[in-house]
Design brief:
2 copies of one chain form a homodimer. Chain A is an alpha/beta fold. Chain A has a 7-stranded mixed sheet with strand order 6-7-5-4-8-9-10, with helices on both faces. Chain A has a 3-stranded antiparallel sheet with strand order 1-3-2. The first copy, chain A, has 8 helices and 10 strands. The longest helix of chain A is centred in the N-terminal third of the chain and has 19 residues. Chain A has 2 domains: 75 residues, Winged helix-like DNA-binding domain superfamily/Winged helix DNA-binding domain (Arc Repressor Mutant, subunit A), CATH 1.10.10.10; 115 residues, 3-Layer(aba) Sandwich (Rossmann fold), CATH 3.40.50. The structure holds a DNA duplex (24 and 24 nucleotides).
DNA sequence: TAGATTGTTAATCGATTAACAATC
DNA sequence: TAGATTGTTAATCGATTAACAATC
């Protein structure tokens, strides 16, 4: 079924965690942080699942990939489980992030305070417009895209965020890859092609709205819906 | 296997389209629009799949849920297929969108020009800060959250975008639902609880970065990784 | 007719879920 | 010991993929 290799300690190796589970770990982490701040010391899978918006069977299955961190009949120690998940995700250390494309969205991202507490530090802002080089946003001055290599090297960036228009995105991705970045978060409406070993995640606002529209259309059908089709 | 009901015309009814397929239709739509603008009249599943970043088997399977819009031995008429997909998604008409929370992100979203051409019109900006009511952003003045009902009704909003801090999000969602909105795009880092029949999609930037960090950690292991664990 | 390409089938894979034995 | 809750099993469900018959 699941070809989990096992370590000496009996825990499955990290790469054996299913993608769907990996995508939920940050949600559990956030819920545990909130529950911990509210003073809770111990939490059951039922409680934590509710806080995370999933069912408890899925939560327990997900946690079972990390190891056996609960106590039967009792539940999970909030702080201990929080620490284990944070370690598994890799956010006990800080990751240095470079943002490319300092338009409205790039600025909003650079100002967002929530990244810091979640393991990310924005260490560089880069843009293709030479006239904006040196412009300050908080502590950071905009650098030019031609200096990307140097910026990435000097500041140890391991994640690149693309917030350019769609037609610039592939070029930026190529430069990021050339400078050694192997993790990219893409906000530009474009399909990126990257070499094997480079991870790209995309956040596409129009696509999210279109998925909502698809379902909305079926909840409240438009007044006029033509089913006639002109054969091409 | 797949309990597709069929209409008189033999096409599966809309609600029979798998979610994974629905999520890709906007990607195909965008690729077709770009190919059409480049002058291409006909496209094969192989070409379109490449442009959309998927494999051709998946593309053909996805399109088969919509109907039989291709010609064997030839391919798909670009404009005809583009129209059919747009109709299926529901973006041949415009959807009115209200943004709640006009901070950095809310402003960036309200300024983004790409929504208009993709079937969405931002018709209202709403914030909880009374001192900002009336503030202009483009053509739109900020309204107060207490007037949400009226705004939604008068401007026919069918989609709400939440761009508030996390702790305000559930309250805003409750108000949106109360005012009749049944589709919500949530940018706040919070799990939303809504009644059945209301769709929520979430865009969570920290979560996306954490998923990247998980994989990055396994590509370049940190210099010091403690495996020792203090039992709680 | 020969070549090309769709639309569909069926096998495989991965994710979800309910149920419950293990065990605190 | 009795009650509670985890961790795991196994069934089910949904998504992906390769292969190819249908057909332009």
């Amino acid at each position: 079924m699941n070809q989990l290799r096992a370590q000496a300690n009996g825990r499955p190796v990290s790469s054996g965690i299913p993608e769907a589970t990996v995508a939920r770990l940050p949600v559990y982490l956030r819920a545990l942080t909130a529950l911990g701040e509210s003073g809770l010391r111990t939490v059951s899978s039922e409680q934590l699942a509710t806080a995370a918006g999933v069912n408890s069977a899925k939560l327990r299955k997900d946690l079972s990939y990390l190891g056996s961190y609960g106590t039967r009949g009792v539940g999970y120690d909030v702080e201990y489980l929080r620490y284990q998940i944070a370690r598994e995700i890799g956010v006990n250390q800080d990751w240095a992030v470079v943002i490319i494309g300092i338009g409205n969205l790039g600025q909003a991202l650079s100002n967002y305070g929530g990244f810091r507490s979640r393991g990310f530090r924005i260490v560089a802002l880069v843009d293709g417009d030479a006239s904006r080089v040196g412009e300050m946003h908080g502590d950071l001055a905009i650098a030019h895209i031609d200096d990307l290599d140097q910026v990435v090297r000097e500041r140890g960036c391991s994640i690149g965020v693309i917030a350019t228009p769609g037609d610039a995105a592939q070029g930026v991705a190529d430069r990021l890859v050339a400078s050694g970045v192997t993790s990219i978060l893409n906000f530009a409406p474009a399909v990126l092609t990257v070499p094997a070993g480079v991870d790209v995640r995309k956040v596409d606002l129009s696509i999210e709205l279109q998925i909502l529209a698809y379902h909305e259309q079926r909840k409240r059908p438009p007044l006029v819906q033509s089913e006639e089709v002109v054969e091409s």
